[in-house]
Amino acid sequence: MNDTEIIEKAKALLGDAILEASNPALRRIFLTVDPKDLVRTVEVLKKELGFAYVATISGLDSGENFEIIYHFGKPSSQLNLRTRVPKSNPHIESICAVIPGAILYERELQDMFGLVVDLIPDSRRLVLPDDWPAGNYPLRKDWKYERPVEKIPGGKS
Amino acid sequence: MKFTVPIGPQHPALKEPISLRMTLDGEIIRDADIRLGYNHRGLEKLAEEKTWLQNIYLTERICGICSHSHTTCFTQGAEKLLEVEPPRRGLYVRFLIAELERVHSHLLWLGVAGHEAGFDTFFMYTWRDREVVMDILEILSGNRVHYSINTLGGVRRDVDELQKKKVLDSLDVLRQRSEYYFKIGATEPSFVARIAGVGRLSKEDAVALCAVGPTARASDIPQDVRKDDPYGVYAEVPFEVCTADTGDVLGRVVVRVKELMQSYNIIEFLLKNLPDGPIAVRSPRRAKPNEVVSRYEAPRGENIHYIKSNGSDKPERLKVRAPTLANYPATVAMLKNGYIADIPLIFAAIDPCVCCAERAVALVDGRSGQENVVLMSELRKQAQERWKKAPLKKDAVWPF
Amino acid sequence: MLEKVVRWSRKKSPWILHLNSGACNACDIEVVAALTPRFDVERLGVLLKATPRHADVIISTGPVTRQIKDRIIRIYEQTPDPKFVIAVGACAMSGCVYRGAYNIMGGLDQVIPVNIYVPGCPARPDAILDGVVKLLGTL
């Protein structure tokens, strides 16, 4: 199936759930859905369209929303599913019930952005150190870091 | 009762620090848990403050063994955002270095697998041949690791006739030696018996847990970005996707060996059909607001970069997912119901790179709740003792 | 008299411990490549040991991340005296490209005292051998 066929079939199966669809380059499809339709869309993508492989999940801080993009892949095509979550209520549902391999990427979203993933099977910290002060989410745009002054052994300081 | 053993970050052999906690029942592992973060360097935040050209040097240092794969993936994406198209000769040189990197990475891995299985002679032989590849890379690019041959719009150095001849001669030497080793490895019953049946991963598990690279290909899934989503020159170069159907460490060795032979063929094709022309074009400094997803087949699996630009000369967001991270859930599934003595071998089989490093294993005894820290080297010694006494599996067949 | 024998044996056969504190692996591969038949550091009597309790020299690569800082200090204290530390690579000297990141403390000398610095990104195996020999010369 080439790209236009995939988009048409997705629109036929999901109807209004797809807010936008675009195909900017060969084998790159971008779809946008609402957070409430997310798990249903992922199930349809896995069972009817054959996208059972999640490459990664990227988070973006765009002003007053968080954008979360799920990158799927299958032979001969690659699809990216985008949803937007407001910063005032950063909750999103987990897709681990449908695709168990997405667990590590969702844990990283929780660490880096402070998003809360509901129904996640395992919500421990992934990459930040154990003594990291809580409430600091490094990849948010408004988080700045003050470097402590280094002591140079044998130098003037 | 369950015994949990923590394996801490310092370990004598190669690899980087990660921490594992295994729950045991006697000698069999019931559950495993991985703690990453020892190697987290905050790269995605740093990348937002550097320009496109500086980011090429930053992404190169994500990993030392597959450094060219990260720069090529990033440069491909950045070139799409900046709307430049590199010339064909530049693309051929770029992917020539990429295949040479695949050869060196697989030879390195074969040595490590031999070392973990107790076959140290194999380790020394393959690393001696790896030096031949490092010499070629030094002649072509100036450095043994971190070649930094990519730039926005093409490559920085050209290949002339003398270098071409030297590479083709070394390729003959490498081919001959590789075939000799694989004949020895295939007919050496103790080596094959040690690694057959260890770390089994079924096809359904591999699909559900999103495994990539040779780990997935050894479970009979023909997934290779060079064929699924051809980038660069791979649409014109003839090669095959290598799979095996046993799903254990033996299958992974077979897949990597087959890929080595395919890479030699690709390198020869690229050198013999090198087109003429310039090697780079000028590229603008700023990119229009857009987003791009760039995929690349690194020696360990699929490497994916997501880049978003906002009209200035720095990226707005760079997201990197290295292939080893995708193989971690599959590793946990492989470790369950395995023996402690097989831990080093199973870990080496996924070819750990970025997030993997030294590990000390802490074994927690399920029965008494006592903790006991064991070094990986001691585990390896136990592994070697165990296979010396194990019966010879005379019916293990090399599916080559 | 015993002093002289002890000093001679230390100089002739240092045992090393290889520590990776969050590096990109390039320097580590070069350290291991120093053991392979092309460069062969074992002819100088150097042996790669598994545990800090047996080691004389700690060879460390990589910038120090926040998570591994306590572990490095613990390993340094577990190594018996006299001990020497070699910092290999530009990352262990000052942080290389990662300076300024939120999880990096800087070079190795922010955490433990260092005797020899070997520059390079990555440092070639010949340079690492040269560093080890210079260290032995100061004993």
Largest interface: B-C, 44 and 41 residues
Number of strands of chain C: 7
Described by the principal axes of the CA atoms, the overall outline of chain B is globular
**Widest sheet of chain C: strand order?**
2-1-3-5-7
Instruction: Spell out the helices and strands of chain B N to C.
Output: EEEHHHHHEEHHHHHHEEEHHEEH
Number of domains of chain C: 1
Q: Gyration radius of chain B, to the nearest Å? A: 22 Å
Number of helices of chain C: 5
Report the order of strands and helices of chain C: HEHEEEHEHEEH
Write up this protein:
The complex is a heterotrimer of chains A (157), B (400) and C (139). Chain A has helices at residues 3-14, 38-47, 103-113; strands at residues 18-25, 28-33, 53-62, 65-74, 77-86, 91-93, 116-118. Chain A has 157 residues and is of the alpha/beta class. Chain A has one domain (3-118): Beta Polymerase, domain 2, CATH 3.30.460. Chain A is elongated, with a radius of gyration of 19 Å. The N and C termini of chain A lie far apart (66 Å). The mean pLDDT of chain A is 83. Chain B has 2 domains: 2-40 and 324-389, no CATH class; 43-323, Orthogonal Bundle (Cytochrome-c3 Hydrogenase, chain B). Helix content of chain B is 47%, strand content 15%. In chain B, the strands form 3 sheets. In chain B, strands 1, 2, 3, 9 and 10 form a 5-stranded mixed beta sheet that branches. In chain B, strands 6-7-8 form a 3-stranded antiparallel beta sheet. A two-stranded antiparallel sheet of chain B has the order 4-5. Residues 354-375 and 393-400 of chain B have low confidence and may be disordered. Chain C has one domain (13-134): Rossmann fold (3-Layer(aba) Sandwich). Chain C has a 5-stranded parallel beta sheet with strand order 2-1-3-5-7. A two-stranded antiparallel sheet of chain C has the order 4-6. In chain C, strand 1, helix 2 and strand 2 form a beta-alpha-beta unit. Chain C is globular, with a radius of gyration of 15 Å. The interface between A and C is small, with 12 and 11 residues.
State the gist of this model.
Chain B is 47% helix and 15% strand. Chain B is an alpha+beta fold.
What's the arrangement of secondary structure elements?
The complex is a heterotrimer of chains A (157), B (400) and C (139).
Chain A: H1 3-14, E1 18-25, E2 28-33, H2 38-47, E3 53-62, E4 65-74, E5 77-86, E6 91-93, H3 103-113, E7 116-118
Parallel strand pairs in A: 2-5, 6-7
Antiparallel strand pairs in A: 1-2, 3-4, 4-5
Chain B: E1 2-7, E2 19-25, E3 28-35, H1 43-47, H2 52-60, H3 67-82, H4 88-117, H5 120-141, E4 150-151, E5 154-155, H6 161-186, H7 189-195, H8 203-208, H9 213-217, H10 225-228, H11 249-272, E6 290-298, E7 301-309, E8 315-321, H12 323-335, H13 343-349, E9 361-366, E10 371-374, H14 376-389
Parallel strand pairs in B: 2-9
Antiparallel strand pairs in B: 1-2, 1-9, 2-3, 4-5, 6-7, 7-8, 9-10
Chain C: H1 2-12, E1 15-20, H2 26-33, E2 47-49, E3 57-61, E4 64-65, H3 69-78, E5 84-88, H4 90-94, E6 104-106, E7 116-118, H5 125-137
Parallel strand pairs in C: 1-2, 1-3, 3-5, 5-7
Antiparallel strand pairs in C: 4-6
